[in-house]
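Appendix B, record 7
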Amino acid sequence: MKKLIFSFLTLYVSAFIFAQDANATKPTKEDFFYTWVTTMNEEKTRLGGKTTVEITFLNESSYTYFNKALYKTPKQNYTISSWKEAVNTYQDVEEYPYGFRISFKPSKKSQPPDIAVFMNADKTKFLYVLDIGFYTDLEIYIKK
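Structure tokens (predicted):
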């Protein structure tokens, strides 16, 4: 009887630990609340050469985009209206399985398109996806 109880407890604890590990890979909104950087090549910038872009998620409702190559409006502030959990379905980016679709509140200038952000397992990089149907842009950002 003791062996049966011990076996049951071992199986239960193993299943509990496995479930905790599976949930640990899913990022939370707070995992994004940092400054992240990427270097874009000249095909994406259209300005020639490489440029550094910084994204900062200040909190659940504030997002800043800073492109060091733009002179007119290098820093843009956005107000986030919603975060919805998402699973990455884009090809060749399996390292970034889980994340969020982010929607923005309309501003006076223009309505930014929704984006998706997917984080890697060790939470040091994320995949930024801008998908507007006929055009999809994928960028990898690294925690600064």
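Remarks on this record: The first helix runs from residue 2 to 24. Helices lie at 2-24, 42-45.
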